[in-house]
Fold this protein.
Amino acid sequence: RPGSEDYTPPAYTNQSGKSLTGASVPATLGTIFFTAIFISIGAVFLGIFGIRQYLKSTYDPVSAQVVGYNSYESSNDDGGYTTMYRAIFEYTYNGRTYRKSDSVSSSSPGSDVGEYKTVYVNPANPVEIITNSEQVIFLILGIVFFVVGWLPLILYIRANKRSRR
């Protein structure tokens, strides 16, 4: 029992309630929880990137012309507005012409009207395309969440190694 001289705390804590690594159990669990959540989110984004890369390899590359932009106003954190742009692509597939907006928006037009870009067309549904700009977003988000997830755990382990010396 706590308070008696022959009391032995559970193996995962010392007399002061600290884990064997020197940190409190809640801090340890919080770090593990944070790491698990962020790594999981990163894995989802990287998984989406991987699936889309696979799909892209099964789709047909087609040259598409940027024929214009859809634009809309997006509110900022400071109460202002930013004009966002989505490229409109026109491409021909199996003798038929299609127009499709990019699914990615940007605060500046990424390409000039009249410029040609490669899009990847789903042969089973030619209105479905994948653009390279979509792929970059999934890759960047996946890497960022993955790194942000691992960083606290690495720092936590390093700090605990130092505190045990």
Observations:
- The first strand starts at residue 60 and ends at 75.
